[in-house]
Specification:
Layout: H1 24-44, E1 50-52, E2 63-65, H2 68-71, H3 78-104, H4 109-121, H5 125-135, H6 137-155, H7 161-184, H8 187-218, H9 221-281
Antiparallel strand pairs: 1-2
Amino acid sequence: MAETKPTASVKATSVQAKKTSNAISWIAPVVCILAGYSIWRFILGDPSGFEVKGSGWFWPDHSKPKDALHRIYEGGIIVPLLIGMLLMVFTFSIERYMTIRKALGSGSISDFIRKVQYHLANRNIDAALSECDKQRGSVGNVMKAGLRRYKEMISEGNLNTEQKVLAIQKEVEEATALELPMLQKNLVFLSTITSVGTLIALLGTVIGMIKSFSALGEEGGAGAAGKLAVGISEALYNTALGIGTSALALIMYNVFTTKIDAITYGIDESGFTLTQSFASLYK
């Protein structure tokens, strides 16, 4: 009969889930769309900026704008949606910048890891924990969680070295699983606007061109030329706003994903540092 080796139990993780509010994810889009309509209706559509003032409250049919700013109003009802999306790009870019800036910590991640490696090589766990308190951020939090388990495993007598290394690795993985979602949250808005902004701009362009060709078919002479100009104007303003919004969203998305990749690399290096240090020093 084969002999079964008793397995020692490992304590549950000490990492606690973070309580974060996600209210901005549904409040910000609504507020931005309403703000976009307000800008289009009351600033770009201010009656004083047009020679011919139209009627209606939701979408007054003003014509003959006096300057380029009020000429954007002729882009039509798609314009406030595009302005709202542009405001969303600004809002979520600021929100992600503040979150990721905090996650990066107070110093260089590579310098922080080198300091921890130095303290671990000298078996000074408390000094390494002190470096985590100074660094803070996602890498500091993951390293601190791993170091706490590292310190516990040094005095743990019921586990062999391999089991202790696995316990440290598990602690790092669980801490990482709590940090990464916080970094990636709300990036979906930027990635969505990157593609949807262009599609909505294309919709506005098509609507403007439909109006242009309808004017050519219904009237002739100067009247048709005027409506044709308005239709083309609507098409081009929507195109410009949509392309500009999508381009900005794409740039910000790439900037933030690059910073997140740097943090993720630092977290992976932290886990490798802890496991390799323990395996080599506490055989």
